[in-house]
Amino acid sequence: MKTAQMTNNKILMAQASYEFKTGMKKRGINTLIPMVNMLQIPLLVTWFLSLRYMSNLPEVYPQLLN
Fold first, then answer.
1. Model-level pTM greater than 0.70?
2. What is the CB neighbour count within 10 angstroms for residue 54?
3. Distance of CA 55 to the CA centre of its chain
4. Which string of DSSP letters, residue by residue, matches 5-32?
5. How far is CA 31 from CA 2, 41, 43, 49, in A?
6. Which of 13, 26, 53, 64 could form a disulfide with 4 if both were Cys (CB 3.0 to 4.6 A apart)?
């Protein structure tokens, strides 16, 4: 695939892409699963920002002082 990209050969690139996709299907590898894990990033950022907000307001959240 790298050779096809370097030589800009469209036919060879299509063939390499097809072989890659069929190899992934044959081994049962799903490429969507790692993308679903990326959904965790916005949730974690929101969680950390809300904790920082809460820790900066001890008069509103006195439970955090203990």
1. no
2. 13
3. 29
4. HHHT-HHHHHHHHHHHHHHHHHHT--SH
5. 20, 18, 22, 30
6. 13
